[in-house]
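Anyone up for a design puzzle?
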């Protein structure tokens, strides 16, 4: 490797005088010899392992597999921890902390003697957080995700984790399921480590890492407990060494074409609406001018091909056995930028050339898709001046054009108090509205957008209603639900001006969300409105409220986006100015 360009880590370990002495001495204190790190690429292994996050509980073994691959390829692996984000335990939402984990990843990578980094990630927000942090440093990086859990089996049927929980919970509330059976479900629901087994946010973001070109082909859908996942982690470690030697940076991969490919894949998968926010944030980190309208343009020409819950029938494990993400991308070839670069050193077109679909029930042909257009639509109108999204593939078709009276809830506490009140003035044609659930209003934009159907309507047989909010919803959820309404109510968005009984028109084919109230009346309501108390006055929460942007900008911090014309700061201040 002596003929290769000088490695970044050598600036630490070949330094003269006291700095070099300390760098080498403290690494040797770990029992690591000169031969292990001299003239070898040093590969960081970012590991969010935590017993607080079931999705990551197998990451110690995966990190060991990455380590083997790095050593096989002649590199020196150094593992380091990062913040771990788990959707189930963290309150009010992991989305509040995605940017904090991205900052943790970015600064740890930048400040240390690393030539490349392998990004382990699993639960929803860890994948975009790790990608955002690595992209901002622009050090060679490659991702390996944790894989879906084994499917649960309950009453003889495979379950899609949270997707089926929503259905069973509605059955319980409607009196169609006993509490005893619901308790039995609890023990069966999560039979192994791994992330949600349907096309929720974790599976979607795993697939998009592959679609962006930042993960090895075929890595996204391998089940967490399948031995092939650790074999793929080993291969990822080997490839990280090559990326370091060749100095292949995320900025050379994360191009406009790569984002187009990822969005096309998102629409074909029936993937999570959360991916819209994460891709917008990642694009902002590398200076790609992505906006909501581009998502809608690509959606309208991209059919849904993947028959996986919540938009379809099967689970991600069946998608893996049907050919995985390479097979989906192969079907999408006419819609892709096939020359886009990837971490393999080959183009995405070359990577997927030999991929084949082995089960057309799970991955349908481009010529006979599940739906002729993509799974997510972008809406605008006087209720969403800066945009909103709806997952059409998981909505009731008959509700995609709908006009009904609003039933408004001021916040999540108001919703919890009144949604099942028998006296609530609500009917099947009503439009449920939740506000103050966005980035600043909640805060953190939790997954509160899957508003429950009032119990009295469930018992009357209602299975879906139009629901609106400035919140997000789980990628595992379903229903005719408009999300990410921007600007949010808490900063004066028009959602905060809706009153009970106001007529709201949803017209998805026309991409329109409209409040039928005269502009003069909305101005009067706005003048009479009062700001809500600030949630945080100190700590990270205060920083978040001061700097978080709206959903149409990816909810990233304004100070973390790439500045126009500014090169990335790959190396820490003072590295070359310390006394020798």
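Challenge accepted. My sequence:
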């Amino acid at each position: 490797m002596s003929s290769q360009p000088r490695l970044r880590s050598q600036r630490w370990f070949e330094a003269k005088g006291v700095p070099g002495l300390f760098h080498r001495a403290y690494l040797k204190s770990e029992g690591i010899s000169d031969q292990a790190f001299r003239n070898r690429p040093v590969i960081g292994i970012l590991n969010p392992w935590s017993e607080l996050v079931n999705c990551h509980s197998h990451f110690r073994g995966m990190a060991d597999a990455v380590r083997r691959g790095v050593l096989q390829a002649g590199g020196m692996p150094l593992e380091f921890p990062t913040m771990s984000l788990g959707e189930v335990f963290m309150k009010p939402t992991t989305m509040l902390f995605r940017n904090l984990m991205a900052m943790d990843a970015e600064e740890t990578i930048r400040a240390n003697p690393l030539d490349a980094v392998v990004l382990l990630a699993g639960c929803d927000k860890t994948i975009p957080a790790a990608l955002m942090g690595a992209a901002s440093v622009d050090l060679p990086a490659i991702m390996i995700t944790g894989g879906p859990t084994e499917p649960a089996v309950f009453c003889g049927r495979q379950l899609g984790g949270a997707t089926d929980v929503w259905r069973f919970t509605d059955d319980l509330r409607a009196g169609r399921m006993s509490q005893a059976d619901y308790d039995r479900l609890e023990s069966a629901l999560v039979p192994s480590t791994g992330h949600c087994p349907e096309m929720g946010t974790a599976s979607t973001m795993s697939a998009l890492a592959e679609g962006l070109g930042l993960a090895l082909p075929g890595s996204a859908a391998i089940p967490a407990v399948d031995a092939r996942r650790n074999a793929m982690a080993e291969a990822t470690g080997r490839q990280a060494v090559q990326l370091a030697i060749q100095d292949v940076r995320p900025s050379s991969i994360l191009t406009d074409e790569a984002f187009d490919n990822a969005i096309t894949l998102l629409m074909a998968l029936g993937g999570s609406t959360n991916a819209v926010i994460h891709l917008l944030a990642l694009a902002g980190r590398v200076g790609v001018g992505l906006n909501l309208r581009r998502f809608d343009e690509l959606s309208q020409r991209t059919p849904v091909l993947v028959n996986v819950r919540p938009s379809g029938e099967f689970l991600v494990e069946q998608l893996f056995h049907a050919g995985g993400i390479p097979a989906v991308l192969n079907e999408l070839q006419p819609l892709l930028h096939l020359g886009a670069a990837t971490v393999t050193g080959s183009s995405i077109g070359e990577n997927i050339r030999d991929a084949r679909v082995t089960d057309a029930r799970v991955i349908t042909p481009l010529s006979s898709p599940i739906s002729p257009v993509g799974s997510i639509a972008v809406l605008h109108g006087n209720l969403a001046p800066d945009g909103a999204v709806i997952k059409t593939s998981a909505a009731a078709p008959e509700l995609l054009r709908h006009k009904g009276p609003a039933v408004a809830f001021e916040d999540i506490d108001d919703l919890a108090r009144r949604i099942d009140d028998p006296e609530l003035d609500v009917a099947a044609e009503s439009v449920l509205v939740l506000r103050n659930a966005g980035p600043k209003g909640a805060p953190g934009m939790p997954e509160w957008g899957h508003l429950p159907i009032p119990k009295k309507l469930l018992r009357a047989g209602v299975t879906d209603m139009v629901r609106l909010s400035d919140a997000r919803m789980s990628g595992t959820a379903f229903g005719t639900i408009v999300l990410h309404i921007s600007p949010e109510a808490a900063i004066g968005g028009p959602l905060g001006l809706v009153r009970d009984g106001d007529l709201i028109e949803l017209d998805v084919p026309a991409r329109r969300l409209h409040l039928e109230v005269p502009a003069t009346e909305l101005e009067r309501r706005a003048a009479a409105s009062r700001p809500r108390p600030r949630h945080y006055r100190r700590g990270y929460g205060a920083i978040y409220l001061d700097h978080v942007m709206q959903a149409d900008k990816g909810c990233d911090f304004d100070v973390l986006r790439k500045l126009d014309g500014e090169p990335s700061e790959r190396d820490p201040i003072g590295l070359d100015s310390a006394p020798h």
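A detail worth pointing out: Residues 61 and 278 are 27 Å apart (CA to CA).
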